[in-house]
Amino acid sequence: MRRSRIGPALAGMAVCAVACALLWPHARDAYALLAAQDDPAELSDLQLGSALRNNAELIGQNIEAALAENDPDLAGSFADLARDKNIPLGDELSKRVSDAVAEHHSTPQFAKRFATGLVTGNADDVASLSGTVAGDLFVFGDIRDVVREGKHLAMGEDTDHLVLGLATAGLVVTAATYVSVGGALPVRAGLTLVKDARKVGRLGAGLTHWAGRSAREMVDTPVLQQAVAAGSVLRPGQTMTAIRAAFRAEKAGALVRLAKDVGRVGEKAGIRAAQDTLKIAESPKDVARAARLAESKGGQTRAILKLLGRGALLLATGAFNLTLWLFGALITLFGLLSSIKAATERLTLAYLRRKKARRLRRQMAAAALAPDASLASAAAQA
After folding, report:
1. Which residues are CB-neighbours of 373 under 8 A, at least 6 positions away?
2. What is the pTM of this model?
């Protein structure tokens, strides 16, 4: 009966110990992720560590894919990540990456992409963005976009209010850039990047919805229609003054902050990283997190975004699920401690009972020997 009481306690202790051993790694990882949820750099490091443990060839495979797609910028980003994680790539692959990056940044290629950005207004890298920003700084690009979209608005046609709002804000920021001697240039570049991403369909749905709503609020439509009706790309000074009158500066704070964060990503991690951020971001908070990630990881940012997606910016697994792992581990730990307590108490009780039984048997044996000793003594006296 007593052994049967000790057995369940020992069995419960064994079961809880096994459960704790199985749950501990998950609970440890869950706690680390929850603790790092407000630090994009730490969060991405934890998730990258898990991904690379599961597939040690992940970085090499992505470098090969980037080179095959003629994307040396992404290949270089993965090479930076490999160096940071002390992952060997091999001499042949490293040389291919360095050659591709050198070719990409050669003077003829840079000049070609600069001219493309200046003429088309589309930016894919530093060179083309430089051309695009140059066009916007000369107000040609923004006036072109405002006049085009403004005429659509005046004619009752489909209007891209986001491009219209970005271009209108760009005119005001351009003026501020001249006044501050380039101090507002990161914001100017950020607005250009957001506008370009919208034009080519690289802006995430959630961010598009938010930015479009913000753009509608900061443009006085009737005033803008009048400005567009009287304006022309051939009269940039007059047109710019008329368009700026339609801009509600007090409504532009959130959009300008977004552009500033996009500019920070582009400055620290490259234009393509900024474009990738705009594609996966669902809100300005995502872009702000990406800016913090870029400031910490630099050239590795694009590779991190490629591997983790939006999970690099926030918890991909719900906090509730992670909390469940922690709660489960605490429950099994409590069960283990309770089982140890119960087993210890029952073993101690069994030991005390056995000790008491032994002492009782000795006393009974001593009592049984006492009469015989008394008889022997009496006989000796007789």
Report:
1. none
2. 0.65
